[in-house]
């Protein structure tokens, strides 16, 4: 939820503090906005804010970074997910490229046992991976916020969705 008198919200990759000046809807000005409302937010200063930039309240700031750890469900039967592979990553409204830096383990869904020393993930397998993106992402742990804590992986050659992920946090490796 955003209120028109919110002070010091973070805007964009500049991580700039910005004060809200007003919130407009097609019906006119409102005092607060929340999902799934369609609004335009007026800021106190004239700065460039565009699709994909994030405006948040001062105490709800997401993490910003290019290195993330995530649980990925692999959805491609033609090729497996392997360390060193490159994909497009779609996170919120942003798309970037990503490199699979490492595969820590595969999860056996029947026993919940972690299988270390695996070379890849095949169709419908789940594993913990470390990713490095080409552009910084605004993210939260999936447990905290499903919208900013999830992503999909896309094969750039076929434009097919090959994986879905839940962010665990910044990369530990």
Give structural notes:
The strands form four sheets. This protein has a six-stranded antiparallel beta barrel with strand order 9-13-11-10-14-15. Strands 3-2-8 form a three-stranded antiparallel β-sheet, with no helix packed on it. Strands 5-4-7 form a three-stranded antiparallel β-sheet, with no helix packed on it. The two termini are 34 Å apart. Helix content is 0%, strand content 51%. It has strands at residues 2-3, 9-11, 16-18, 20-25, 28-30, 32-33, 40-43, 55-56, 63-74, 86-91, 94-107, 114-115, 126-139, 150-154, 161-170. The protein folds into two domains: 2-60, no CATH class; 63-170, Translation factors (Elongation Factor Tu (Ef-tu), domain 3, Beta Barrel), CATH 2.40.30. It is mainly β and 173 residues long. The model has no long low-confidence stretch (mean pLDDT 87). A hairpin with a 6-residue loop joins β14 (150-154) and β15 (161-170). It has no helices and 15 strands.
